[in-house]
Amino acid sequence: MQTVTDRTSNPFGLRPPFDRSDPDDRTAVFGYGDANADFHVIGDHPGVHGGASTGVPFTELEDGLAVQDVLREVGFASGPWDAPSLENCFWSYIHMCTLPDGRAPTDEEYADLERFFDAELRAINAHVLLPVGARATDHVLREYTTQRHRIDLDMASLHARDVRGRGFLVVPINAPVEWVEGDREAIVSRLEALLASDYRQTKGVATTVG
């Protein structure tokens, strides 16, 4: 069943619970892309993956642009880098609000926004979750799989690896700043293989196995 919205940015009209942004920054970097997507790319916060000025995830900053570059190569993104067109792909952050000087959120600030991220993730209802970096991967594995207690959060080992979840296939992406030779090619290859497969069956498989 498809989502009944064609809005690209903040398709479900979320309203952040606080505004601690710098004067020239957006209050929040909302979820962005195809609300009917099968692939949901999940970043950390605007200070890591960008968008404080553009309002679009995975823009402006080096780590975010490296992720966007991979998504362009496999055909999810096209057009301007600061406002790309997305097909079959949705981008969002576990902490959408922008903070002064791009600082990291506190544990309390992450917790304040958890319900917003969860609501959006469930509304998108993608088949494949692609968390980027340790914080996003930890959250996704804890909340949407039964396997976090079995898995060491070693992002170098988890990178581009399949983890079965509760109704989702999770494919973690190591932070681009930590990529070594072959890491970019590994995630490109994994995404291409998924796109060439009947990945929509992963929801049923994941529900059984996870």
Automatic annotation (TrEMBL):
Domain Uracil-DNA glycosylase-like: 30-149
Organism the protein comes from: Natrinema longum
Region (Disordered), start-end ranges: 1-24
InterPro entries (alphabetical): UDG_Type-4/5, Uracil-DNA_glycosylase-like, Uracil-DNA_glycosylase-like_sf
Compositionally biased region (Polar residues): 1-11
Highest taxon listed in the record's lineage: Archaea
Key word Iron-sulfur present: yes
Keyword annotations: 4Fe-4S, DNA damage, DNA repair, Hydrolase, Iron, Iron-sulfur, Metal-binding
Any Pfam family the entry gives: UDG
GO term, biological process aspect, one: DNA repair
Lineage: Archaea, Methanobacteriati, Methanobacteriota, Stenosarchaea group, Halobacteria
Gene Ontology MF annotations: 4 iron, 4 sulfur cluster binding; deaminated base DNA N-glycosylase activity; metal ion binding
Name by which UniProt lists this protein: Uracil-DNA glycosylase
